[in-house]
Amino acid sequence: MGNNAGYCVVDLRRSDMTNPHIVYIAVPVFSRARLMVGTVAKALTVNAHIRSTVIIHELKAQQVKTDLQRALSSAGATECTDVHFETFQPKEGGDILSSMSCYAQELKPAFANVLEKRGSADLIIVDNNVPVSAVADLRALQPGVKIWCYFPAEPLALYKYIAPPLLPLSPQELMQRGLQILNNPKPTDPEEIWKVIDRSDGGTMNIPGIGPLYLRELYSELSKEVVINSLIGGSIPTYDTLVVNVNYDQSRETCQELSALGYKVVPCGMSGAFPIHPVTTAEELPDDPETAKKVKEYLDSILRERSVLYISFGSMHFPPAEQMGDFIDVIMEMDVPVVIAKSVPQHFKSLETKLEVLVQSKKGLVINWAPQHAILSHPATNVMLTHCGWGSITECISYSVVMIGWPLVGDQPTNAIMVERSWEIGYHLKQVFQGVNVGKQLYGTDIVVKGTAEARKEEMRDTLNKALGADGKKKREKMAELGDIYQKSITSSELWLKEAGFPRSSV
């Protein structure tokens, strides 16, 4: 194990590594699967002799295969690739915790099939949501195999999970607390859930690249997410290396801090984050051509450049309906043209009346599926209201679309803080905070979370005015500079492959 430029690497070089076999395991979250497959494609453009196996939910496989074919075709790497998809159908769980458990049960036989069909793996790369029990199963099936964790986010988000040594709790202690609550058959008091992560030092932490903040600012509400985070945090030390979906130069400080704490970190560039195959016309959008055409016609009809607001929260989580209703009220009041993606229609069930008024007024377009690259790349689009998932952030940077962050879970809060505070390329809504934040002041500011509709609407109006005005223009200029850095990092798959012992091939 060596140390280079502030991050640690694992040396997997072997004399017989002429056709290395990398196994990628993607969790059943579509956006993450696409990011990981972007990494597969980029790896193959660097070393065409790599044999790649993708273990994935069968319902996601076809679209991900299409993405991979597009990416390889664009890179001219289709003639010399060996890629196999091992699919499976996990049983459905009642909630995300149950789903993770069911998913773990199906990974073991899937990997056993891979070993039989494709031979042993030289490296396994798993998504950070793969349960620790599944990782143990992989090691049992192939003892000694190196397992890297793919973390599709800015590495500073790891601080939400790992509880660095400067704080009282270790990752293992966090996981034990989370399991205690998870295994409790009785309903758990919210304050008991909060005790899983609250620290005896008063609940503050200093995150490199962001600075000090209250730990509660990383959680929009008290929920089982606290437990999930503790489980993820407990699994991180079990991996040999963390592969982070960033450009090292942009995240140097965080990578160095994590390395000093003993975590082995390798940046792989913006793998899959930028569209390798540009998507700008209806003909290039096989998912739903009719919707793509409708979106293009609507955006083309907008007479003012940089005037449209695009709203999307992905397919996993959604803000409280009451709060989202407040935002829709503000949009109609301010007469802002808007495209709203309701990827999960049931999330919008109580908002249908307001959405109907919005559509009838010709001020907005509401769709179930959104061609996001086509929307963000259109000259009419100015601002995106987003949960601050890492994929959406990097896409907004690519197209210089200003972000209004409404983070909900996972790495999203740290992403939103970074967008506003560190990079100054967007905004972060604060009055939408719930739970332990209501009635309390945010660290280092005079902002108090009031928890009222009036306070939320006032902040939303102010933020939209800034984003659509001169301040938003300044942020777009900064974003263009950052986009240049990230576009250059697209080729940095060569870095992590070299460190893994799979250097650039001659073909």
TrEMBL record:
Keywords, comma-separated and alphabetical: Transferase
CDD domains: GT1_Gtf-like (cd03784)
Top-rank taxon: Eukaryota
Tagged with keyword Kinase: no
GO molecular function: UDP-glucosyltransferase activity
Pfam family, one: UDPGT
PANTHER family: ANTHOCYANIDIN 3-O-GLUCOSYLTRANSFERASE, GLYCOSYLTRANSFERASE
Name of the protein described by the UniProt record: UDP-Glycosyltransferase/glycogen phosphorylase
